[in-house]
Amino acid sequence: MFRSSMETKQKKGIEMTDKDTAITTSQTTVIKSKRGLFEIDFKELWKYRDLVFLFVKRNFTSKYKQTILGPAWAIIQPLLTTVVFTVVFGGIAGLPTDGIPPFVFYMCGNIIWQYFSGCLTETSTTFVSNSHIFGKVYFPRLVLPIATVLTNLISFAIQFVFFLIFWSIYWIQGVGIHPNLMLLTIPALLLQSAMLALGVGIIISALTTKYRDLAMLVGFGVQLWMYATPVAYASSLIPEKWIGLYMINPMTPIIETFRYAFFGSGSFNGLYYGIGWATTIVILFLGVLLFNRVEKTFMDTV
């Protein structure tokens, strides 16, 4: 009887030991190199969602830290750009705006372009700017580009509210503004802009680990891209024979649709919009391929 009670205690001890082992094993994280070129662990990204929001908070705080006006710069920057476009392109150059009041015409294109260009520019320095973090602790590297996109979304939201105020004033006055159901596509347009900026940005970020010259050309390239997009002018100025080539630029149908939704002026072409989405997906796919390949060895070259 004494022996049987001892055996019972030993069995209980073994069971408790097994439970303790199971708990320890369930909390163990195994980090291994990625084998596939296109391998995104969405489950892991979701697990690190708190880290994403911490980086968003860090990015937004550091962006306006030690500034007098703080987040007000999110409004001042597009406002000043809109005023310059209105005076230079609308006043001096006399470019037509398809019957839309020039101020809201330029602001409409400017806020979504600012969102795209901000995401692209900041994402393009992901590896170089954060090498000190990557070398110390592990986390999914795509967390930082995603955090950049979300940070710029906050700035866009501030600018968008500011734009809606001016748009509402002109709408009440009935001056060349005819909104339509295409307003429902605004979330899709923002998503496409974010995906395109993310794709192009991480491609540049991956290449700059070896070729630092690209970092010097990003600002110039973004500026040229803006002039190849109907931000400061209406697409109706483009000759008919060049319109097909012009619409291949995926940002062109985005801005055209954005303006068409709010003003009812211009046009919406489903074919070009579909081509823009296809181009965006391909660029993002290539970006993730290159990003996954470079992140394995970038600490040796940065």
The secondary-structure class comes to: mainly alpha
Average pLDDT metric: 80
Q: Number of helix segments?
A: 13
Strand content: under 5%
Describe the protein:
This protein is mostly helical. The chain has one domain (39-300). The chain is 68% helix and 0% strand. The protein is built from 13 helices and no strands. It has helices at 2-26, 42-47, 49-63, 73-92, 102-123, 126-129, 131-134, 143-173, 186-207, 213-227, 243-246, 251-263, 270-294. α4 packs across α5. It is globular and about 65 Å long.
Write the layout of secondary structure elements.
Layout: H1 2-26, H2 42-47, H3 49-63, H4 73-92, H5 102-123, H6 126-129, H7 131-134, H8 143-173, H9 186-207, H10 213-227, H11 243-246, H12 251-263, H13 270-294
Helix pairs in contact: 3-8, 4-5, 5-8, 5-9, 5-10, 5-12, 9-12, 9-13
Task: Explain briefly what this protein structure is.
The protein is mostly helical and 302 residues long. Helices cover 68% and strands 0% of the residues. It is globular, with a radius of gyration of 25 Å.
Structural descriptors:
302 residues; mainly alpha; disordered N terminus
